[in-house]
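Narrative summary of target 7.
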Amino acid sequence: MDIIDMNVIDSNANAMGISRLILMENAGSSIANRISHISKPCKITIFAGTGGNGGDGFVAARHLLNMDFEVDIYLLGHPSDIKSPETLKNWEILKNINIKTNSLGIHIIKDSSQLESTNSTVVVDAILGTGIKGNIREPVSSAVDIINNSTGIVIAVDIPTGLDPERGIVDHKAVEADFTITLHKQKKGVKNGDKKYIGKIVVCDIGIPREVELYTGPGDLLRLAKRKTSSHKGQNGNVLVVGGSTDYSGAPALAALSALRSGVDISIVASPNCVASPIRSYSPDLIVKSLSDNYINFDDTSKILDLSKKANSMVIGCGIGLEEETSLALNEMIEKIQKPIVIDADALKILDSKSLSKHRNEIVVTPHKAEFKAFFGVDIPEKLSQKIDVVLEYSKECKCTVVLKGNVDIISNGESVKLNATGNPGMTVGGTGDVLAGLIGGLLAQGHNAYESAYLGAFINGTAGDFAKKEYGYNYLASDVIEYIPKVFRIS
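Modeled conformation, tokenized:
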């Protein structure tokens, strides 16, 4: 598990009502329980940092006291350096119970000269965990030396201090643990690290329900690509939307505007000439390229392929119509396009699903129930667990990412599954599917993989719809959903 994964999980658990304070309590309790299996009650020294790892150590200290351990806590830094509310709360609890009725000793270490060697039977490293950045500084550096020179059993909380949580390497120095008690799931650095530093790995459950990882949440926004301050026009993504027909000008416009709201720099619409002018009129932010008069056909393939060369991703199908010539043109083009593609709306009714296997880049298909049957030839069952199985099976078979839109969106890349429960009945209004397709296309253009783009897009689209409902009730439009997309990005 990457550190970003753990941050996402913490945030999503909090959004589900499982506060970080609860998780810290569970973590500390689990650590103490595991230590009691490793050693009988004895003298134990806990070196604690001022971050979340230290907070876990504070909670563990409280539980260990109840198990008849003699506990010394060494806080490496001043209490004013504690920024985490949860860590600070547990520090205050320790101070409140340190009233000579137990064997708790608290030591505030402002300078490495205040440290001394320890003869404790158990020594706990709750200093940095995943919070390491660069070389270790004092007084942490001296504390690491003391831990490594001790004769006691060394136990690291989550990750040994000094071990890179992502790469599993040591750039400077690190605690050499006999046991690493890692929380919730094994971190990448622990999995890849040298046993000299990690020792025996113990994974502790801290009460995070499976649903926290299964369902999308605000924490997933932490995965969004960060824009470089040095970036220039076009560097943050170029999306090409191919769609529109005689009767449909709004769908491709909504998709293109949604892509812009996702953060891309350029959004181009390639549409039949009959709807090119109406699409231009929707917004001066759109670039519109005219194709054949009434619907896309073979005469347009070379122009679309040329336009695709400058795009980072494509969205195909919004308002494209069901003409036989359009179907033939799309099926011929699909294997020639060398960019990630989102396939939506009418394209799902006229494209052959078997043609996807010829495409060499990532594909996302975004059907609702009826479109899923039209594209894959399979009915969607009613039970959620059965729906998940079907989506997983067909995304794997077609080697693409599938977003089955519904009351609960089901997203799968054939290996993993995400569910999205954001959104509301007001999103049955026409155009919200086009907004979703544009969002996914925009995220693809910014470098996210197909699976990540799909479930992030579903969450952002549904949450924007929820914001629109708060403002308008159920009387909102797809264009209103687009206007609320930036607000979603600000909740992370």
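The chain has a mean pLDDT of 95.
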